[in-house]
């Protein structure tokens, strides 16, 4: 019997796009989408609902479906994480440990997402190197750094084939903005198209590393399909595509649609200021051939075109 793929956080920002991509490559009957509260009614595929902090329930789903690969995506993001740090720790860490323990016993291959949030204010902010200072100042970042160390440990100690990337801010149109600091770069499109205006929660000169979701999905699948002998990083690969300031994005959007952008920095600003502006991902490019496709103009146009269809805007 073929081993199946299980995706946690299947209906979150990344999962909403990774699940269909995996279904396309490996067949619908081979992908198990694990969600929690909001499972879309029109989802076409195998679905399970579980509380990710319930270790027994998670393990029983892994057993039930004869799983060979797990994409363990479930996570609360940075801004939401600051509202309830304890919940963030529990959600972001408990399920990961359960999945890794099961992976040891059953020789699973595991993907786990880290983030630019693993870095902190003491990290060099421009072209942040692969190996550098990691002193995050958000609970989300703390869980990402702890997770990086945990997956690295499970690889060294038990030989688990676990792979990871430090995603930059991901920009996508399928899932609505959901509690991340980089989500201003998503919300600006949503509000821009529905209201013609956007109040941005960071300063105009706030520059962060970003990536269009299609690149993010391709990176994930390419890393998981890469020859393990080529992988020199088993905590998490730096991954990059584009970097821009909030005002540069606003300008690019205004080439296509009229959006009045105002700026009212709040607690998100401190988080944004603690993260890099750009990332050196040359190790990923060397080890498994990573190459991004979406530039700022291409991403902007693709977002506008897709959201116009989604919102029925002509
Ligand atoms: N997009 C995430 C956030 O802003 C960063 O990984 O929280």
- List cofactors, ions and other ligands: serine
What is the count of structural domains?
2
Helix count from the secondary structure assignment:
11
CATH superfamily of the largest domain: NAD(P)-binding Rossmann-like Domain
Give a quick rundown of the structure.
With 314 residues, the chain is of the alpha/beta class. Helix content is 42%, strand content 17%. It contains eleven helices and 14 strands.
Structural description of this entry:
The protein is of the alpha/beta class. The chain folds into 2 domains: 4-168 and 211-238, 3-Layer(aba) Sandwich (Rossmann fold); 169-210 and 242-277 and 295-311, UDP-galactose 4-epimerase, domain 1 (Alpha-Beta Complex). The protein is built from 11 helices and 14 strands. The protein has helices at 15-26, 55-64, 78-83, 85-106, 139-158, 184-195, 213-225, 246-253, 268-273, 282-288, 296-311, and strands at 4-8, 31-35, 46-49, 67-72, 109-111, 114-115, 161-163, 165-167, 169-171, 197-200, 207-212, 237-238, 242-245, 260-263. A 6-stranded parallel beta sheet has the order 3-2-1-4-5-7, sandwiched between helices. A 3-stranded parallel beta sheet has the order 6-8-12. Helix 1 crosses helix 7 and helix 6 runs parallel beside helix 8. The longest helix is centred in the N-terminal third of the chain and has 22 residues, at 85-106. It is globular and about 55 Å long. It starts with a strand and ends with a helix. The mean pLDDT is 96. The site of serine has 11 residues, from loops.
């Amino acid at each position: 019997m073929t081993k199946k793929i299980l995706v946690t956080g299947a209906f979150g920002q990344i999962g909403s796009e990774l699940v269909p991509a995996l279904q396309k490559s490996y067949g619908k009957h081979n992908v198990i989408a694990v969600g929690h509260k909001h499972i879309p009614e029109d989802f076409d595929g195998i679905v399970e609902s579980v509380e990710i902090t319930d270790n027994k329930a998670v393990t029983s789903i892994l057993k039930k479906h004869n799983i060979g690969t797990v994409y363990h995506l479930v996570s609360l993001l940075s801004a939401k994480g600051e509202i309830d740090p304890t919940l963030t720790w529990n959600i972001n860490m408990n399920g990961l440990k359960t999945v890794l323990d099961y992976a040891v016993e059953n020789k699973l291959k595991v993907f786990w997402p880290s983030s630019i949030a693993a870095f902190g204010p003491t990290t060099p902010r421009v072209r942040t190197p692969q190996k550098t200072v990691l002193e995050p100042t958000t609970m989300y970042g703390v869980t990402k750094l702890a997770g990086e160390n945990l997956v690295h440990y499970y690889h060294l100690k038990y030989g688990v084939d676990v792979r990871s990337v430090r995603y930059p801010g991901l920009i996508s149109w399928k899932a609505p903005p959901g509690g991340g600091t980089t989500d201003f770069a998503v919300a600006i499109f949503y509000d821009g198209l529905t209201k013609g205006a956007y109040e941005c929660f960071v300063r105009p000169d706030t520059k962060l590393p970003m990536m269009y979701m299609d690149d993010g999905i391709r990176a994930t699948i390419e890393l998981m399909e890469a020859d393990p002998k080529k992988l020199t990083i088993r905590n998490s690969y730096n991954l990059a595509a584009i970097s821009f300031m909030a005002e540069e994005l606003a300008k690019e959007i205004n080439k296509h649609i009229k959006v009045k952008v105002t700026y009212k920095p709040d607690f998100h600003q401190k988080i944004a200021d603690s993260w890099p502006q750009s990332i050196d991902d040359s190790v990923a490019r060397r080890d498994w051939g990573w190459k991004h496709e979406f530039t700022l103009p291409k991403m902007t146009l693709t977002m506008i075109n897709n959201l116009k269809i989604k919102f029925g805007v002509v």
